[in-house]
Amino acid sequence: MPFNDLGRAVLAQREALDERIREVVESGWFVLGPQGRAFADELADYLGAAFVVPVASGTDALELSLRATMPRDRRSVLTAANAGGYTTVAARTAGYAVRYADVDPITHCLSRQTVESAWEPDIGAVVITHLYGRAADLEDIGSWAHENGAVVVEDCAQALGALRANRRVGTIGDVGAMSFYPTKNLGALGDGGAVCTNRADVADGVTRLRQYGWAEKYHVEQTGGSNSRLDELQAAVLRARLPLLDGWNARRREIIETYRASAPAHVRVLDASGPGHVGHLAVVECPRRADLQAHLSRWRIRTDVHYPVPDHRQPAYAPEYREVALPVTERLAAEVLSLPLFPELTDDEVNRVAGALASFAGD
Ligand SMILES: *Cc1c(COP(=O)(O)O)cnc(C)c1O
Fold this sequence. Notes:
This protein has helices at 6-12, 14-27, 34-47, 58-69, 86-93, 112-117, 138-147, 200-209, 232-241, 245-262, 289-298, 327-335, 347-358, and strands at residues 51-55, 76-80, 97-101, 123-129, 151-155, 163-164, 167-168, 175-179, 193-197, 214-216, 219-220, 268-269, 282-285, 336-339. By secondary structure, the protein is of the alpha/beta class. The strands form 4 sheets. A 7-stranded mixed beta sheet has the order 1-9-8-5-4-2-3, sandwiched between helices. A hairpin with a 2-residue loop joins strand 6 and strand 7 (167-168). The chain binds pyridoxal-5'-phosphate (PLP).
């Protein structure tokens, strides 16, 4: 059984996608046109955000968000080290130092306590990743950050649509970053991303930065700009898919709940119930991960690990972080395992994974 199969969603929507793509091809307008504008409006409406600025990828969305919000007198970003390293790449590309805080053992996300104990006065931004689809507890972290002169960036690449007290993630902090990489809950047929914010100054900043720093054509009014635009084809595909997102997210949660109900006590399936979770990944925590992975493999079930190497232990960065210890992050990197999960999994397939989990012996 595949870990993911993007072909199934395309097949189910083939005619609608062909139609949207044909429209763009025939229009002769391929970059920053009507599709991108309409998608920005529709996504802003869905999120309840004042502004959405489409960009070329989720990593770019993080980078431009950081550049547009970092207080002038600060030079470093605080984040978690268990979220795949995208924030690290984005922050380093923008020229900022990266500091790490440990994560909470239950949620796998940053908490107020871990953020406070890692705090340093040069931190100007906290990037909170809504990991695996779970809306992180960001209000307490946000108030600490704001009291200490820092901004809050939400990494919503895995959590588009998740709710926190009836607000969509991405609209609670200063700025939110989205990814439409094909495997995300709302995936394009290629790369894509977006920044959302309720702050007009941030929306203006990102709009300039995504296109060379231009305030208007050929007039550069901001340094640090680059080329990061969402193209019309991807915007058209995303418009055809956005109306399906809530249904897909509900199906993802339902599959995870089936896994949870059948897993034995020594395999902890992370909770994904309720609208505060959009079930991006079905993650289990198991101290005998290699055995579980081998067991599932005998059932012909593919698994993956998100993520095996924490950022501060990546060979490229490790020499800078010899003094840094993140005990929970490091333990979880050795124990997490992701199960097959995508909305088009059949009930038979879901039941097979559930049966395989149930038969994993506990010794
Ligand atoms: C996928 C992902 C990103 C990066 O998105 P890209 O579009 O691939 O650049 C950032 N953060 C998280 C948590 C992600 O899962």
